[in-house]
UniProtKB/TrEMBL annotation:
It comes from Paracoccus lutimaris. InterPro entries: ABC_trans_aux. This is ABC-type transport auxiliary lipoprotein component domain-containing protein. Signal peptide: none annotated. Residues 188-218 are annotated as: Disordered.
Amino acid sequence: MMRMILVSVAALTLLGACSNGEKTARYLIDPPLSGERVPDRLGTAELKDVSLPEYASGDEVSWQTGDGAVRSNTKELWADNPQRAFTQTLARTISDLSGATVIAEPWPLAEPPRRRLEVRVEKALAQADGVYRLSGRYFVADDVAGGANQARSFDISVPLATDAGPGAIARAQSQAIAQLARQIAVLGGPGRSVRTSSPPMPRMDDIFSQPLPPLEDS
């Protein structure tokens, strides 16, 4: 009987330790405010959910160790879903920088956006060499005849603090997102611009929303 009581007490103690929220650290993505302003090159744009590598889309903060492996700790977590946080933060930062109306999907306004923005991240990692690397490509689609479509790449490096802990990684990622936001806002980076050669096909809801012509006299 005494043994069963001791086992129960031990199990409850272990459960309490595992559920202790104070032992789990959560980190925010929060780019610094620079106060810089750039011209509005986007107008209204819907930002698709940012595509992240699998290691960067999980709840745990990841980093690369000297052996090249990407590791993480179950006690060091992002405060929000990484894809959602990255997407929302990028949209807000572009808007704050340029005055453009960039909103993460789904588009909430009655007037549709002029452009669609898509970001595909290929690397988002605190590397073993002491640098946070954010690289990939972004695309701006403009369906209006004569509109400029952009296909450009980005490769951003932010030095990590000496401690290189999860807090330093979160700060470096926030700075990298701020730099990416500026690059997108000015449509910068290696790549090309392609003009839309023909007007878009009308949507079904636009067709049926038009008034019917008057009936001719019989």
